[in-house]
Amino acid sequence: xxxxxxTSKTRIKLLLKFFLxxxxxxxxxxxxxxxxxxxxxxxxxxxxxxxxxLLKSESEGNRKLFGANIKHPLFNDIHNIIxxxxxxxxxxxxxxxKLGDLNKVYLVGDFxxxxxxxxxxxxxxxxxxxxxxxxxxxxxxxxxxSRKIRVMVLKPKESKEYLEKxxxxxxxxx
Length: 174
Known about the structure:
Strand order of the largest sheet: 6-5-4-7
Shape: elongated
Low-confidence stretches: none
CATH class of the largest domain: Alpha Beta
CATH architecture of the largest domain: 2-Layer Sandwich
Mean pLDDT: 91
CATH topology of the largest domain: Beta Polymerase, domain 2
């Protein structure tokens, strides 16, 4: 859907990178390696997004560090569009709300770092959960959003060690 609205694949990658997780920051060279595209194509899109105020930057030596401008009036709207594009809204609607007794749900892995992929990794923090029902919900949802979903269910006591090891993004909290 997003591809029909925004024709630049580089711009879509940048929006995913910076607007899915607002804490994400990156340099031009690291984006070149991550995206596998020329620095010129990425620089043009970074400059466009910075010129309209969607991205902010700061200089560190001879490098420029980019990040989302969370104070921009369209930040929340773009953030929500990106979440819908990935399917996070569907995960919350069709899995989290139907399971009930959950504490928190975290996005981990590539998506937590703002990198698009075919697999959505989640940590579900819950004291008690019906794993068979969760598996059925996930299976149905994977068809709807055309992405694989991997879930790790953790008890609140054991979750701390996992959350410290990886970059995580809280997407739902009870």
